[in-house]
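Handout, section 4.2: multi-component inputs.
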Amino acid sequence: MEILSKVHARNLVAWAADKPEVLVLSADLTSSTEIDLFRNAYPDRFFSMGMAEQNMMSFAGGLSREGMFPFVHTFAVFIYRRAYDQIADSIAYPRVPVRMFGFLPGVTTPGGATHQAIEDLSVMRALPNMTVVEVGDATDVETLLDPIQAVDGPVYVRMLRGEIPRLFPADEPFQLGRARTLQRGDDVTLLSSGICTEEALRAAAALQSRGVSVEHLHVSTLKPFDDPAVAEAVGKARKGVITMENHTILGGLGTATAELMATLGVGRPLVRIGIRDEFLHGASRPYLMKEYGLDAPALVSAVEGLLGEDLGIDESDLAAVRLENVHSAAKAEAL
Amino acid sequence: METAAPSTEPWIDDVQRVAQGIRRRVLDHTIKNNGGYLSQACSSAEALATLYVRVMNLGPSVAPPVPPPFPGVPKAGRDTYTGAGYNGAHAPEKDRLYFSAVHYALPLYATLIETGRMAEDGLRQFNQDGSTVEMIGAEHSPGLELTGGSLGQTLSQAGGIGLARRLRGESGRQWVYMSDGEFQSGQTWETVQALAYHGLDNIAAYVDVNGQQCDGKMTDVMNIEPLQARLEAFGARVVSVNGHDPQQLAAPAELERDGRPLFVLAYTNPCQGMPLLEQRRPKLHYVRFKDEDERNAFADMLRGMPR
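Output:
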């Protein structure tokens, strides 16, 4: 598997070269959110707003009313928790084109509950006028800027940084509102998002070897949630549907899927793999994925539950966990 | 504080005429509807009149004299609608007003009428269903173009607008009308430090320091003083004035810009020009008459008020 580092940092500089109306706002996490190269390349379009997110979000709303495109970067929790009122009134209500890049989703940081965004998709989905997307690999990161820049209104991006695998072909760009179909099958439909797609792929070969037919889609647009391919996939699964997300099961991919299935009248079970209404704490990604049941073995258990049989898959049958270096040149800090 | 003595300069007479008109209209409306934001009119009348008559460089209204029905909240497939047109068309050299104290919407609408920017009939729509002339103004309301009702957000948004206009080389200024209660909010201080840090001297705020808020007297709720010293410590340029004196109110706007955001602290009396209101202290935020007698007393006061 190809592993890339600082994908957004380099991509943003290249992409923004011919877009003078794209400004970047930082809240004292410039290297940590991979906008240091942008700052160096375009100092006149980089604005340090300090550790003051409420002002930053409303300020961005003001800039965007004047034809600018503020690209706000900070850790996700500081966007949606600290400044939700400002996002609602200064950005979402007037439907202005602010692009928010929220880093450190869920288990991707050992920074603890204060740094781990576990309900960002829930609250951002609930805001009228908001578009909500989440990236799952380097290709997503490299190719999402054009599609989100075309959105007439605000966009929240659940972003990845540091070392990121390339799961999807580099020439198959992110498409807004379109899931990626990774595998076709008709026993079980699996919808995964963010880093859970990489985790789910660890179990793909083992499930296939046991003759389980899985339809696997990587979902990157959480709102709007109206992709016909997703509707078709949840409708055709013989045994049921599984969602897998690095997020609370209240309000994210699992909830959106439940709403879709209920609306469509799909009368089959839905298993929502995700954080079950509790906070995370500071620990490594593999540790947290295991502790909170977000990993490949949790997926195997969910499939077994839907099929009503023991598939006899153990850890050794699963692809190895990719261990990310906690300290590496790809990240400014160990967070 | 006392109102300034009559002056020989014609603009001052204009300000005083508009200010008195604001008080009369708001009082008349409050009597007819048995409720209204009276103290806000009392404290803001001269400041709003001075801004519109003397300070702001605005073009004539380009909005319909009688506000049309509300087309609806911003959403996909619907054009965004604001009340900015009442303050004239946007142009690089023109100023903008960003009205943060949206509970003062009634005095603002009265100001628009007194300055010929909205028809008298516009006020009949106040707080009526389907109208933009809302009780708490939002961006679609006459004279407004931001949604600041949560308080503390308008100054930040004006900062972003001021930065964008500076990047475009526009000379127009952003005038923000704020209430003193907003200085209890952390966001306001975040904004002041950002405006100072980024040298946004095209932002100037007039603050109605009337010492009143919803729960009553501000010092019984949460103290903000010494406001001038606090703002100066944050890097702002601050001028404290008698908020009922047009000359004092207008003077800071003439200062040559020096890289700092300007704050004019207009110290005001929330009962100015309506002595009957004094009896209702300390709760002045919203006036609903206790009985017919009180309402009649205010009606008598209206008949006796100078034009």
